[in-house]
Amino acid sequence: MKNKTIAIIGLxxxxxxxxxxxxxxxxxxxxxxxxxxxQVRKAALQRGVVDQVFSDPGEAVRDADIVVVCLPVLLINxxxxxxxxxxxxxxxxxxxxxxxxxxxxxxxxxxxGTGAIFIGSHPIAGSDETGIESATAGLYSGAVVVxxxxxxxxxxxxxxxLWQCLGARVxxxxxxxxxxxxxxxxxxxxxxxxILVDTVLGSNDHLxxxxxxxxxxxxxxxxxxxxxxxxxxxxxxxxxxxKSLKKFAGKLTAVIRLIxxxxxxxxxxxxxxxxxxxxxxxxxxxxxxx
Length: 290
Prior knowledge:
elongated, three-stranded mixed β-sheet, 54% helix, Rossmann fold
């Protein structure tokens, strides 16, 4: 039986890790890749990320049964428009973008009449490092992947099976639900981490820098993410991010008031309750990955 073909558009951290995972897991796919830069194409072949790599995205997707667009959020639909005429009838197009409403809406319009269908994906996995050199075959193992598909969708079930074969835990929800939830669980933490870095290190004081320990490092690791990627995320999910930031600002203001009013006993109780929530979440999270 002939292998199906999967085309990966973009061979950075997410795309290259996907190729490595598929090939290491010996899934029944021939892996095509597209990368704009020749050095990335060369590295993809040397590292075994793909079976074959192309400088033209149309050539990469021409025979593909599944196309995964692994590009920054605001580039995803631009590339779907580029490859539209080259897509095989009956193929599934997906992405790895961390916002979904605008992507799903525009992609559905773009693919209308092509015979291809768009199913949104968002692997909640990643790193503050970027590029093909940071890719690992285990990036998606144990990660939650959101698939935005209608209940009973054959294509949605097919995408869910692919991610599950890579060791991911799949959650199906609407694009609207996804963007609301992810604004709190991912986008808010990133914005808070960047603000924390600016607050502490904004003065460029060498002594302050020396005094930053593992707590500061752990709390701000994600602030090392690409500003290009995060510009696109914030722009495409701004309403939900603003809502989450305002909620956070309210909680922060309440803590400031407790400290100003010397209500240290009340603050201690609040800290204990929050600590218990964190411990409970960590136990559930670890159990889910086991």
